[in-house]
Amino acid sequence: MSQRFKEIDFIGVFLWVFRAVIIVLVIYGTVAKLFLGVGNTYTVEIWVDFLISGLSQGSLYALIALGYTMVYGILFMINFAHGEFFMSGAITSTVLVAAYLSASGFMDSQPVISLLVITAVAITTSISVALLTERIAYRPLRRAPRLVPLITAIGASFFWQYFFRGLFGSALIPFPVPEALQGRWTILGLEFLRTRVVVMATTIIALVSLYLFIQRTKTGKAIRAVAEDKDVAALMGINVDRTVSITFAIGAAMAGVAGVLWGLVFRQVHFYMGFVPGIKAFTAAVFGGIGSIPGAALGGLLLGVIEAVGPPLFLEGLGIAGAHQLKDVIAFTMLVLVLIFRPQGLIGEKLAEKKA
Amino acid sequence: MKRATLLVLLSLLLALFLVACGGSEGSESAATEANESASTSETAVEAPADAGATCTDAIGCVEVAPGDPIMLASSLVVSGPNTELGLDSQYGVEIAIDLRGEIMGHAIELQPEDDGCSAEGGQTSAQKIVSNPQIVAIIGTSCSGAGVPAAKIISDAGFAMVSPSNTSPSLTDPALHEAGYLRTAHNDKIQGAAMAEFAYNELGVRKAAVIHDGDPYTEGLATVFSDSFKALGGEIVAFEAEAADATNVEPLLTSIAASGPEFIYFPVFIPLGSLLTNSAANIEGLKGVVLAGADGIQSPSFLENTVGTSEGMYASGPDLSFSNAFYTDTFLPAYMEKAGTEPTAPFHAHAFDATNMVLDAIEKVAQQGADGTLLIGRQALRDALFATSGMEGITGTITCDEYGDCADPQISVSQVQSGEFVRIWPEK
Amino acid sequence: MAQTANFSKAVRLGLIAGIVALSVSAIGMVQTFDVRDIITGVLTLGQLLLFSTALIAGYFSWQKGEGVAPVGAILRGLVAGLLTAVPPIALIFLTIIWPGIRNSFVNVSADLIEILTFGQTPVVGSLMLLVVMGVLGVIGAAFDLLPKRIQKPLFSGLLWTLVIGLLSEILLLILRPYTPRAVLNFLFGAKGITPITAVIIFILAVGISAWWDAQGKQAMQQRRAEMAPAKAKQLRRLNIGLGVAFVLILPVIMGTYLTEVADIVGTFILMGLGLNIVVGFAGLLDLGYVAFFAIGAYVMGLLTTQGDLGVGGLSFWAALPFSVLAATLAGIILGVPVLRMRGDYLAIVTLGFGEIIRVLVVSDLLKPYIGGAQGILQIGKPEAMGFVFVQPEHYYYLILAGCLLAVFVSWRFRDARIGRRWMALREDEDVAEAMGIRLVSTKLMAFATGAAFSGLAGAIFASRLSSIFPHSFNLLISINVLSLIIVGGLGSLPGVVVGALVLVGLPELLREFAEYRMLLYGALLIVTMLLRPEGLWPSPIRRRELHAADIDHRPDDSEDAKSMA
Predict the structure, then answer these.
(1) Domain span at B354
(2) Residue A6 has what pLDDT?
(3) Which among B9, B123, B127 has CB closest to C404?
(4) Which residue among A34, A70, B220, C246 is buried most deeply as judged by most CB within 10 Å?
């Protein structure tokens, strides 16, 4: 790699300076915050609060990131529309199911059944949208240059956003949280918001079962085979189209689950909710190592934590006004840094030139 | 071959500059005039010899032939996420026109345009409006960001506009004010200051935190509030910002909680406002801290999204508890019939008053020719608008100052009580 | 067996068309577009949208060469048309069963049902809808039975009538100053053309098209062929001259408002030309293109504003080079870190850059320097020899000059060595490198040139509005520009113009589209990539690449080769 550019010295120096500046800034800010007492002083409990909030947000990123990572693993394309799969499930299940369950009081009397029904609807919607998108916008272009499916994915993203805006309106839609999940639970002496516990537990269950599914089942093997080499897999008697569809469906199902959890945490859904989390989750997937399921989980959690802890830690330490406003800057700077210096991500395998 | 085309292109560029300069000579007089007069006046000045009256106005007249309507335009946001704000105002304008019926035998017609709630949208709609020389005056814009370029274009073209909902201080700042710009909405300076006074004097809080979302309106309001609060002797312990489409606002609120405020003011819109309200309920450190928003969240939709969590919080906004019988007996029924719903935003009454202000001014300055032709002098109209004084509108007594602020600034504070906004301050 | 198989196609198409009809109704397009008349009292845009589904389903319900008898074809059309009506009818009855539907589906309003049922009772209305859709399906199917020489004129007649009806407001704006009121009232309705006008246009278009097919085209070609080369050249120059003259006097014809729209379109053309270099020529997908637009605008704003934020208090002309330079530098600086990335990674990182710039611009961090949320007001206007640019007409020439400059630069670069390098890079980076192309300078050159045009556009934009706010510089601008160059034709210069006219100009003029702009963009991006990846007006090279099979040899290859030497 280092021999590739004639001007490597100039570029290399620039990149090193870039890296050094950011590291110095982060360290300086952190030191200033922790030891020089710039801005508010936070107690240990408050730092724990930041951490938990970040972990819970990170779990959601991880669930969404799975879809990116799986599709990328198998097709080497960024499914830009994945955030909309997430949104479609959340918004449809809220408007058509949750609102009515809540109004009838069923939600409070039977919270578990209600949430299962809502989740089922969300998953179904997300999968339908994903399969439709795959069938129309991606499959015919599988042999096209790589830019082409990315462009259709961007198109699909905007199409679905505004399609659901047309269906359900642009207003904010409240997501009803059952009474049983309001308030806190005490676990190991620490108080946790109930919704947060549900989010993290669901994420862990989903991640583990997905991992087992991919590693142990026949379909999982087929997915791995297609990811390795589509043509050879086809020769081995694997139905590639079907396997790709299944991959999309699994990713979308995870996004559907994430959609319901999102509703529980933030208590509101709307048509634009998929876009930013989608990009963040993609960042998480790249961060952890795109193509790797544990990588997506790790990347998601880390991104969530950095977004929550970063502004109060080193941005406030640097004396920056309105630090929390800049958390997207942290997220995207991280993405850029990872892609420059470690394109394979934290625990991803080094991808061959052709794939990266 | 290619070289030849190149030559053609180069000479074309040259020609362009020549044309631009040549054109400048022709329109120079018009353009230099443009600042204090109208470049559109040429259409209007055509002396109506047969009508008997002649236009003597400094920046031209609108001539309304017998049988033709008097044209007004509106430039309000009727698309995108802020549609409710603009439509609400538009109903106010339409009701005012319907109730007036006609002026000196001429019907009144409205050309509605969309300001898109953005500088670009304001610019385009203003250009569209001023390209129709029959238009007498404009009701708009909805958003201050759209108002800035629109005020310039409309003023330069010699027209006059009255905005029902621009609240940004810059629009009526003596250094920035455009000659044809007026508004019936209150200046943000007043709302921010009123909230600061309420918090400091009524609630007795001394430490406040402020959150805005990077929108000019919310940022302006947040700034005015914090300045006024400090002036009263209070302390602003945190001046924070969060993206309008933010999701996880708990870290922000945790940070703020650590700075120990007694009161948090977030003059943001519904999505972020309800997120902040809901999340604040989850933060241990914010127990007992008073929350307050502004007119951006004074909507049923906000209450639906914050069932349980918004109870007891405050919101500032224009005082809509209009005591006059006209509002409840005539205006509201007309509104309900037109819109099919209760008012969705606070500014319909301001739009109604703005329209009446314009119509009154037209009645005052219009000169009727022998054959029924109306002549409306543009400068005369402006003068009449700025001279508006003591006009009784729904929103109060309207009196304009020389920089176009006409509102009778009545700001009230409401509290959410049992899931509804209840006006609590100032006492009547 | 074959017969049923063919019918199954009609059934499938009919149902798909029906679901499309249902969707466009449910998301509110039909009723939003219903406000715009095409032919007053006869046809609105909403109805056109709704009913065209059946027509199209009918048209495609059978294929020539399948050996289907005319009756069979018409039957297939009928089936497709009738089935198209089924989902909307289901919606009509759903609203009866479920009166609260509007609480969930906000656009399923009484107005929509009134449009679907023609204002009749549900049962009568549904039957009418069924009949209308069926008839349209039959018409669609029958259309393909006609011989080509009748089909074509009919089609162009229809198309012209609809287009002119749709654009009647613009025509009205142009004609109003010159035409007596009575004539206008005769030709135009409140928001469309009158039926009489429609008939006139239809007959004219059919006539002209038929004549053209029968004689005109041949005669023209013949005359061209017989013409001496020198004269042909002269004619071409005359044409170019006429075109130039037309573009130059356009503002006079169009009036202030349409010129304003032309300015907006022109700004996007300028940006499109820049992005075209990056994406179209060099194949580097940049989703953060708005960053350079913002930088150009902010530098212009800061250097020329009379407000408190002002730095230097320069004039527009003095500040312009700084704007362009700042954007160019930003292009290079942002370009360096992404040098080693490709395709989709590059896209996401540039998107990240765009977002970083947007967040920084609005942030409290930079508020003391660039105004934060309150933006920059009182930005300077260009001035030349005592003449100040105020009106859209003045900016029109400025933007036109900018666009011409950009076209010229793009065109020269494309055919110069750098252009060849970009294209080599686009095709295969590794091979390009192996051929001795220096990737760093080649890529940076593309980023820098693209950013420079965007900065220029931003500078003019800031001055034209004389105030800028951070919210004007969002991701949607990047997506708009990307969409327009893709729909127009990647790598094609005329394609950028066509793309901007269609994707920026039309929605600006037809405000009803504003709500559905992004939806249509999304759909257009997909459809373009699936059906016509080369775009509306493709560049010759790309067309050749994409349709290598159907073009064997083209004479102008030699010309390209010559210019390279």
Answers:
(1) 44-185+323-409
(2) 52
(3) B9
(4) A70
